[in-house]
Amino acid sequence: MKKVVKFGGSSLASAAQFEKVGKIIRSDEGRRYVIPSAPGKRNSGDKKVTDMLYACYALAEAGKNFEAQLADIKARYDEIITGLKLDFSLSEDFKEIEKRFKDKAGKEYAASRGEFLNGKIMAQYLGYTFVDPATVVCFTKNGDFDAEKTNEKMSAKLAKTEKAVIPGFFGAKPDGSIKTFSRGGSDITGSIVARAVKADVYENWTDVSGFMIADPRIINKPQSIEIITYTELRELAYMGASVLHEDSIFPVRKEGIPINIRNTNKPEDEGTWIVESTARKSKYTITGIAGKKGFCCVNISKDMMNSEIGFVRKVLQAFEDHDISIEHVPSGIDTMTVFVHEDDFISKEQAVVSEIHRLAKPDMLEIESDLGLIAVVGRGMKSTRGTAGRIFSALAHANVNVRMIDQGSSELNIIIGVENRDFEKAISAIYDIFVETQL
Ligand code: ASP
């Protein structure tokens, strides 16, 4: 077994957390490649080291004193080193960082040090080889991630390394300058390493036992998802469910490697498996529910729209010209509706409206706001009768006014539009009908 294990910031926030991680790694010989994040929050009032680094570098860039802030960051690492009783020091590294900050080495260099230093401690603690991602995670000179070059370099390097720590979140451009992924990007590094070593599994250790069927801020202690496909996850993540960085799916997907989300604080839990495809049914017909508020829609009608070739294209053109991305376009015989994000749309709404009039000459146009979209996702829906019926009767019983229904052609999801004020009520009603009534 070859396992790649990534640990998030909360799993590495203190010496006590490091010890839990050490135990997890040592309990399985297969856990050979370790990807650490930077230390996260130790408690809810605490700061993430990455945020401290950004703030500290902002001072340096502005030519202000940053030494005290850098000393606070060093103290976070020293606390871990002392707590683990390691005979090891990062003093030389901090001297170098101070110098590079003074030389204005850049915000991405600054942020990357969070993972870099944590990786050094981790390698020392485990007795694994430290691999600097700047030598194996490649970006182009324009700053785009170069997946193939990275895969080549990473596989070559790790083929010669039995056990390694590869810090997450960053790599380098051809000129050697440091480039980071977007926030939460250590998940991507883990996936890249898993692909490169052709791992049997990519374990992603965090502080929850996998994905929940619904948002725990809306549903009290929701059930967790045992197994989910990449496509289902994509639908749920798009609609607001978050645990894993979205881009981290692509590298492992290329190799058909499963991801297992695990909880560092409850290693006995199975967590959630994310796989390409599975014969295992989800327990409740649906796999998950997610949603987002803050949408508005533009309702357009025109007599005989149905037979007017090019009408839809002209309407959508108006949105494209104003750089507005479209969420859903349900349509009727002589009507169509375009759902967009309120934040993107409001400042441009009148310009879009006049362009629709000019291009498509509709009879009537009306804008509605304060809408929420809810996605009910499940690979099992295709082969189960009555799913839509159950959803809509539950919503009717809960007195939710359904404003839009859209079933994706994959039959993997049903999207429901509701008013913002009915959003939580609608999610609870759907959760109850599929999960609570089955328990
Ligand atoms: N430390 C980085 C962040 O806070 C990357 C990560 O944790 O994945 O975004």
From TrEMBL:
Pfam families: AA_kinase (PF00696), ACT_9 (PF22468). Substrate binds at residues 50, 115. Keywords: Amino-acid biosynthesis, ATP-binding, Diaminopimelate biosynthesis, Kinase, Lysine biosynthesis, Nucleotide-binding, Transferase. Pathway: Amino-acid biosynthesis; L-lysine biosynthesis via DAP pathway; (S)-tetrahydrodipicolinate from L-aspartate: step 1/4; Amino-acid biosynthesis; L-threonine biosynthesis; L-threonine from L-aspartate: step 1/5; Amino-acid biosynthesis; L-methionine biosynthesis via de novo pathway; L-homoserine from L-aspartate: step 1/3. It catalyses: L-aspartate + ATP = 4-phospho-L-aspartate + ADP. GO terms for cellular component: cytosol. GO terms for biological process: diaminopimelate biosynthetic process; homoserine biosynthetic process; lysine biosynthetic process via diaminopimelate; threonine biosynthetic process. Its EC number is 2.7.2.4. ATP binds at residues 6-9, 206-207, 217. The keyword Nucleotide-binding applies. Residues 376-439 form the ACT domain. GO terms for molecular function: aspartate kinase activity; ATP binding. It comes from the Bacteria. Belongs to the aspartokinase family. Catalyzes the phosphorylation of the beta-carboxyl group of aspartic acid with ATP to yield 4-phospho-L-aspartate, which is involved in the branched biosynthetic pathway leading to the biosynthesis of amino acids threonine, isoleucine and methionine. This is Aspartokinase.
